[in-house]
Amino acid sequence: xxxxxxxxxxxxHRHPGTVEVLIGPADRxxxxxxxxxxxxxxxxxxxxxxxVLERGLAALTGDYRFDVMVRRAAAREVAALVVVLPEGAKLxxxxxxxxxxxxxxxxxxxxxxxxxxxxxxxxxxxxxxLSVTVGRARAVCEAIDGRSFDSVEALLDRVGLLLxxxxxxxxxxxxxxxxxxVPAGPINGTDRSGGWLWTERPGDADADALLEMVLWRxxxxxxxxxxxxxxxxxxxxxxxxxxxxxxxEADRAARAAxxxxxxxxxxxxxxxxxxxxIEPDNLLEVVGDDVxxxxxxxxxxxxxLKAAASMPGTWHVGHEPAGVLLLWTGDSPPRQExxxxxxxxxxxxxxxxxxxxxxxxxxxxxxxARPGIAGLASSATEARLAVSSARFRQRYNVPVHFDAVGMxxxxxxxxxxxxxxxxxxxxxxxxxxxxxxxxxxxIDTVCTYLDLQGxxxxxxxxxxxxxxxxxxxxQRAFEVLGIDEHDADQRLFLHLxxxxxxxxxxxx
Length: 508
Hints:
CATH architecture of the largest domain: 2-Layer Sandwich
Radius of gyration: 35 Å
Helix content: 40-55%
Number of strands: 14
Number of domains: 4
Largest sheet: 6 strands, mixed
CATH class of the largest domain: Alpha Beta
Low-confidence stretches: 189-193
CATH superfamily of the largest domain: Reverse transcriptase/Diguanylate cyclase domain
CATH topology of the largest domain: Alpha-Beta Plaits
Strand content: 5-15%
Number of helices: 19
Shape: elongated
């Protein structure tokens, strides 16, 4: 026999908007469905019966006679009374109180419902397990064909309602065969093993077979919904990632122009930011070609975002040819414990990344917390400098914090001298005729070259340039700037000037 809840659910599906449970529990078993045409017939009802009152008896609900009917139903341990009432009609408080005490459900049917058809639906649902499965299977398929679900959760909630049983998704359940299971495909963007749909077996061979077919249909829909969600997340993440990279690379005027787009994509540029830069050192070696490297960087960016997201705050990620940028944003300056948690989270992110690609080695640097859109760019520059330090010291697969690099205070203090600033301005004066992008590219190339102890090969690898291009840029830069590469003092001043120029420009 079916439960009262399953009868109501199917009735509501067949007659949407016209069925309402006014009071009472829905978990009682229904032993029988009867049409009551006279009050005295209640006295013959068996325990657990669902009594459908003929339309003419609706007039009784407004006076004491309905109270009497509820008392008689309680004496017979009836499960529910179904009455035909217009929307908004009220039962007496006495009748409602009696029904509540006796745990009798009172169900309202709208006057436009065909009582005979509704009675047939209730009888089949309450008394015939196989016809219930057939009817509910058809209802599930009709709901899926309507494509009205915006998530897997909404789909399973509706399917569970229509089937009268809970349908779950996730790892395959353990047990002794009481669960009916079918593979559901990937249940998120990174779980390649996939998941399973399962529900409790009806216990009848025909019903089991029919229900299994329904689960296969539901599994196909969960796969479609998951694919749509993953594609939407990828588009949103990549769009936000592209804007993040633009913010990091732009000058002050360009950042102001980009900020509205960033806000629309959910990047809270006005908060407090910490930027982490992750640069794979041997990605081409472990994946084989440029196409695979791009796809792997995109996958690593997605994985980094998922691994980081368990820490409170807002996270965004972007990737460029050199590596992955991971942005954390909070509403207020991070406290000491937040800094510590952030470092632990970054260590977890790196562990997840190197665990995904066998043999991968990465350098990771993280900037300090800074406010606003200019602070975001500042933290990104600090992260780049921290990566340079990690690369120079060959510190693989561990996050290096900019404060730990040990150069910031000294360089800022040195650069704060007016005499030093004038000397650096004179040094870089020959670059004034270049566009800002070309000027910065030349300084970055020289700085990276000097960071790597004058290795054109390693500079080419880091900047993704040909060695000859690096040699040409370096030679051209030294010529334009009037620097003798073999003069240790000139080379040291140029190196410090490049580093200080980066620190001086990050807040511009």
